[in-house]
Amino acid sequence: MSDYTGKVVLITAAGAGIGRESALEFGRRGASVVVGELDKKLGDQTAADIVAANGQAVATVMDATDVTDIKRALALAESTYGGLDILVNVCGGTRFFGTVEEASEDEWNITIDTNLNTVYRCSKYAIPMLRARGGGVIINTSSVGAILPGNRNAAYSAAKGAINTLSRAMAVDCAPDKIRVNAIMPGMMLSPRILGWMETNPGFEDMGEQFCPWGRAGEPAEAAKLIAFLASDDAGYITGALVPIDGGYAAGKQAELMAKGETGNTA
Asked: In the chain, at which residue ranges do the beta strands (DSSP E only) sit?
């Protein structure tokens, strides 16, 4: 297990799901963690849990669509821990289902802003800090939906597809500064948001078994371990990679389900 002692990590949306598990994972491995989270209570809890386990963490209320909040989080990393080595962009998700025809412009714009533009904004202001440390790592959270879109999820699929291409473009641009950039593509993950969605959509309780050849949905902690690996020196020659973590979903199960009309939101 890689040791992150002396490294400083900023994680967005770190109050729940993949963001929280990533914060806990880096904390366990010795990193100093800046917990960025819109919900103050959730962010404070994540930081408190890291500290309770003898780690180092500080929380900040952070709306990753707001440049002021982003700059405040980065300033906190600088003033508390002396800089930044790793940025993990987790903020995103689906709130609106619909085709291009069905989605309102507001729904489209919000989805693009909370998924794609948060990666752009956070990276834009973090890169100078990573450069100042002689290099660093950015991990972006995409989705398997970027390469295998479900039906009626056009805005989300577009945003995640753009994150994939953006991550590769950033990897090329940032290479001279020894900043590696990779993206993970989670499939069905049992985050609080997905668990809540499953509860309100009868008939989808066994989505993991349906969607994943591996026979189950993934756990956010599994995605966190992948993020920690990609940020480590063990992955020092990996940049511009798009790594699925999906129980085999991208390997072909989606095609079978789409033929049956069993993907996406049916409400």
From this structure: 8-11, 32-37, 56-61, 86-89, 136-141, 179-186, 242-245
For 16-28, the pLDDT digits (tens) are: 999 999 999 999 9
Q: What is the DSSP string of 13-46?
A: STTSHHHHHHHHHHHHTT-EEEEEESSHHHHHHH
Backbone dihedral region for residue 37 (phi beyond 0: left; psi -120 to 50: alpha; all else: beta):
beta
Q: Residue 215 burial (CB < 10 Å; 0-12/13-18/19+)? A: exposed
The catalytic residue among 4, 81, 156, 249 is 156
Any idea which architecture 8-260 has in CATH?
A: 3-Layer(aba) Sandwich (3.40)
List the domain boundaries for the chain: 8-260
> Is 156 assigned a catalytic role?
yes
> Is residue 2 a contact partner of residue 233, using CB atoms and an 8 Å limit?
yes
Estimate the share of the chain in helix, then strand, then coil, as percent rounded to the nearest 5.
50, 15, 35
For the entire predicted model, the pTM comes to 0.93
Q: 267: pLDDT confidence band, cut at 50, 70 and 90?
A: very low
